[in-house]
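Morning, I've got a small favour to ask if you have a moment. You're getting the sequence in one-letter code plus the fold written as tokens. Thanks so much in advance, here it is:

===
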Amino acid sequence: MKDEAKSQLKKIVGDYDEKLAEAERVDAARRTALAAFPGRFVTLKKETIWPAIQEIADMLNERGHEASVGEQEGSSSTAGGVKSAAVWLRIVPKPFAHKSADQPDHHRDRILGQPQRTKGHRGVDQYDDRP
């Protein structure tokens, strides 16, 4: 093989090896980030998200509404990591807040971020994301 052809082949193979190494570095960084996410989410939820939502709930409660904060713990996926977790704010508006249990009102509260299930055309379930 001529020296020029050998040189070109070495460059092509070298470039290919560099691309493979870069792809492995990117994949390793992604795996590390995915593994760290559950812990980072717990910290963020505890230090930032929960206190902010609780402050909103406290303000609403002071003004006569019924507001509460809750959470759904994360469920694990088969591939590892967290499949879903949620922090929610439940608000019962002031006009409905202190109704007795004898007067149920099924439309009085909304959970923010949770689509509401309704019957649509021909009785098929639909989801309404409107707050």
In short: DSSP finds two helices and five strands in the chain. The longest strand covers residues 66-76. The CA atoms of residues 66 and 97 lie 6 Å apart. Helices lie at 3-62, 94-97.
